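Project standup — Tuesday

K.O.: blocked on the structure for the chain from last sprint. Re-posting the sequence here as requested.
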Amino acid sequence: MRIGELARTAAVSTKTIRFYEQAGLLPEPPRTSSGYRDYCPDTAHRLEFVRTAQAAGIALADIRDILALRDTGQAPCERVSELIDRHLGNVRRRIADLRATEHALDQLKARASTYTAASCAATAVCGIFTR
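H.V.: unblocked you, prediction finished:
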């Protein structure tokens, strides 16, 4: 199938397909005698995997590693599970950091509600950030 048909089937742009080829996520397809890319139907499944993994926050380099395992005939399930665990841990740490930031901003907002330009010391840049 040609690139346009693959793009419609996989619900991605032709530009995305070309990018994934350059990034090593899709093998370079054979060309027709007129020079058009000729993708096999299984490429749509590979594109779906890439999009789903990306949506879960898996890095392209990790996706490429998973695909390389599969391309050698190995089931990448253990590697995928490790990546999910690692990524989930990172997300949970970021959530904790964001909660701490939210708390700090709530405190600053409460402090800001009591300040006016007149109450700000002339030597301070902004009294809301200093005590």
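K.O.: great, moving the ticket to review. The chain has a mean pLDDT of 92. The longest helix spans residues 77-112.
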